[in-house]
Write a structure and sequence with these properties.
Blueprint: H1 3-17, E1 30-31, H2 57-61, H3 64-76, E2 81-85, H4 88-98, E3 104-109, H5 114-121, E4 126-130, H6 135-144, E5 149-155, H7 167-176, E6 180-184, E7 210-215, E8 225-229, H8 231-240, H9 242-245, H10 252-262, H11 267-284, E9 299-302, H12 307-319, E10 322-323, E11 325-327, E12 338-342, H13 349-354
Parallel strand pairs: 1-10, 3-4, 3-5, 5-6, 6-7
Antiparallel strand pairs: 2-8, 7-8, 9-12, 11-12
The structure holds pyridoxal-5'-phosphate.
Pyridoxal-5'-phosphate binds near residues 87, 92, 113, 155 and 217.
Amino acid sequence: MPLFESLYKALTDRINQGNYRKLKSSDGFLDFFSNDYLGLSQKNIFLNSPQSKGSSRLIAGTTNNHLIAEKEFAKHFRADCSLFFNSGYSANIGFFSSIPTRDSIVLFDEYIHASVKDGMRLSLGKSVRFRHNDIQDLERLLKKFSDKNLLIVIESLYSMHGDIAPLREIIDLARKYDAFLFIDEAHAGGVFGEFGEGLTSNELLQGINYVKLITFGKAFGSHGAVILSNQLIKDFLVNFARSFIYTTALPDYIVQQSLANVKSDNLKELQVKLQKNIQTFRSLVKNKEYLKSSEISPIQIIQLESLEKLKQVEEQLIKEKIGVKAIYAPTVPKGEERLRISIHANHKKEDLMRLGVGGF
Ligand SMILES: Cc1ncc(COP(=O)(O)O)c(C=O)c1O
């Protein structure tokens, strides 16, 4: 089939399946759709700092601020080292395309983020999925591949499900089978933990080899991401992670803003406000059976009885200028289409009550 014809056909298929993606402005909406859980994205304090070095990190793109920030991130999150990537997406691509070897088996939760899957496509290692949050299935695979070098990949808080991984059990399995653990804390970073380290404290992770991803574009209200690791992994990434090497570095002011937001002295207060808003939101939902997410998650999932009902509720909310996002297949499995509502620390009770026009 000629190229344009096949592109046209793929797009027409999407329209027919009802999952065609279109860009729309989010301006003017009451924000229940962004990941700005703590409301930290509202201020930008480093705009006077230079725009860009116009270069990749290994040429002229590394500044003193990058180096200082990487040390500070490591110190703040109690890690040996940190490496700053332009986004969480490029951090996951860089890690998974470079670190697994031909002898690696990467066991990943079936609902893991697309960036991990895309990284694995470029990897020498073999990847095998386990059922979502299913410890027995994970252990079955750990036993099956016990002669290989094993890597387990999870999110601590799942972005499209708003549920939390059974962290203690997975860490115990990593210890028992001597597997390396990768924890993507993209949605839990900032929202949880004494230092905003997410749901996995250093104490919890004791005695295993692990790497953590913390992103700054969500609760930390900035841009970029760090991989927290030991020196060996960091050195390896600097040398082999192509999404780190072959791209223009982010400007200083973004790195500085990310660091300032991570060190916010009102983090605890914002975390408490956010949890209070989550509880208020849940108490306002009339039919509790619709609630599918964890009761402490800023990502609240409403699963209605049918796809038609979901479309109708989404339309109604959008008409009222309430910004929520319905998530359709293939992002979630068919039959599990849902409304994803992102609760923020700076929502007011009246904001939360306005969601009532959705009728759930
Ligand atoms: C679980 C997870 N990991 C990584 C990313 C990528 O992070 P970033 O938005 O910084 O590219 C996302 C973004 O949505 C995510 O949900």
